[in-house]
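Course assignment 3, question 2. Fill in each field.
Student: A.L.
Task: Predict the tertiary structure for the chain below.
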Amino acid sequence: MKSKFILISALLFFVLFFQNSIFCELTNDNYVEFELNPQIVFAPSFSDYKDNFFGINPINPAELLFYLQDKVLPFGNVILHFENNNIKFHFEYPIQYDLSGRLKYITNSIGFDFETLYYYLDPSLPLFSYLSLIEESFKINIGRFPLKWGNALYPVTVSPTIFQDNFNLVFYFPKTKYYFLAISSYPGFTSEEKSVFGQNLEDIKTIFAHRIEFDFNKINFSIGELNVIGGRTPDIIDIGPVVIYHHNFRNNSNVVGMMDLNVDLTENFSIYGEFSVDDIILAEEAGGITRPFAYAYVLGFEKSFSEDFVLRGEYDFVNEWMYTTYDSPYMTVNVRHMFTTKDGRFFADYPLGFIYGPDARMLTLNLSTKIFDIPFVFEYNYLVKGTVVEDGLERWRWFWDGWTSNTVSLPVKGEYKKYNIFTLSSESSFLSLYAKLINFSKFYLGIFYKLDWKLKF
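Answer field:
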């Protein structure tokens, strides 16, 4: 502990003494930036969470930790940013524990154990980078970054839960915007998944999505679709860039339709909603129904009392079979990521839609304000999450618990679990704070001081 304190004190002295003298600052937007995040973490109730996360099967990154492993700031970060007229290049290389290290060391700590950091240094990088072209009538982005559709805090179709490897295109028309996405899920499956769903399928899963947004002054309305293509190479029919919920009935294709609406009732008060549907029981399909009705929605409001005091409320509903009407991992509406760690490579199945996956309901209250000109966000979530019982163990229903018309085994439906989740976060130019309390028992507090040097040229 003493050595860590001395190290952090030395870093603070180094920054305070040299911060304004190392690099000269010019006026353009091309720069190399170096960040350090000395930190203090208190997490006594999370410190016993060690090896449960790993195994031969894909993992659920939300259960037990509620994505806490993705909220821990890296010890350091190297940022490259270049611009030339309307072309931008951005690259971030964080210096941090790999995912297994972050899970094992979510505990009380001051600073970093550099020997441990060397042992668990994360090779699954970068986690945020992009190349973009911005014109007056369109914008193109390609790279690795989070995505989001709609105004909801917790969307049910495309949400920013984690970065996605994607190609993103936006066209601007009068009163209208057109969005197109192509997302790659990591092309890897476990031996068990291959044995159940066929060795003849290609190890590939691609998601194409498009959305048309109409702006009628105080009313904003959009419609769109996702098309998940798995086990084969997609073609132009799969892309279908101007067709909404086209139901092409092709093998290894799963289509999701969506619509969202935002209405400004007054200058300071708005309501919004989003509806997403995976499978609809249509009259012409009634004779051969093989999958259940699957849908999700979110309803919310936003009230601005002032520029620095904004209150939001939402209710999310995701039914049992949403995102999973196909039991094949090639066709479920989620994105698989591969992480390389000291303990080996493993898969994590992240949501593309609602942050807590299928069979869930959540009430959210969110307050954004400033205290002494420092922004703070206070949030409360009441989550009700469905479970299944498999091999005597109860766990959250997740994307591998799909419609079971042709699976070998069927997990038993478990009880609904209820969670009271309190979150406090703050982000300023010199300090970050993130605190989470779950059911008044699990507690995490991370305080991160920001030190950075920027070389502009």
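Instructor remarks: Helices lie at 2-18, 99-104, 114-119, 191-197, 236-239. The chain has one domain: 2-456.
Grade: pending
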